Amino acid sequence: MNLHIRKSLQRGHNEIVGATDTRLTFIELGNLRLGDGEPYTQEPEAKEAALVILSGQCTVKAGVETFEAIGARTDVFSGAPYTVYVPCDMAYEIVGVGDVEIALCKAPSDLKCPVRLITPPEVKTKSVGRLNWRRDVRDIIDADVEAKHLVIGETLNPPGHWSSAPPHRHDFDRLPEEANMEEVYFFKLKPSGGFGIQRVYTDDRSTDEAYGIEDNDAVVIPEGYHPVVAGPGYRLYYLWILAGEHRILCPRDDPAHAWLKNVEPIAEEIGL
Question: What is the assigned CATH class of domain 9-269?
Fold first, then answer.
């Protein structure tokens, strides 16, 4: 099964993962590119949506709320994002304030809850791992944000560094050891001509795929461990969208590589 998506993104709405994608149950992902004053409207639907501003500014109207000229970063490497969570059965409009790029993340929902603006100071940013698997993680929509299925964040790898390391999966509902959630990654590179590598594999290797990742690529992850590495000389970013029936983050590390976590406190103690 090919899990790699590469599309030429145009002005307007670009479907990356659609509602009819049989590889996934919950997640849809679109990429929206608008110019100054250019509108995009969405009629009410039985889906929740998270509008993650990747770069630029826009005004968002949803229900009785209007968020004027939100967005503060020139690219995804320049700080945490503004994000608007829109619940099901609510129309919304996005209008560009200058050029803007937005990730439209959706999942089925019947949850009635308020519109929510998540500002950059509300995004939880942390450094994870050590040595060449150290990366920065931004939690945007987590358990503190009311939602039906979506959990969303961003990860940034320095050049040559790994993330999702040790490799982990979230394939089965076996709490408290593991919870089942599908996932989509959407990538950016800096400089944009760079590359990374994504591997997706299962314990029995019935799935064992590796993909060369370029700017604006995506990978769908219905199952399996899914480590990522940035090419030398290139910073790698990915927006990650998770969704599951129970909305519980409980990944399981690959036992073959779980020892990496035992190294981390030692590396920290000796200053590595």
Answer: mainly beta
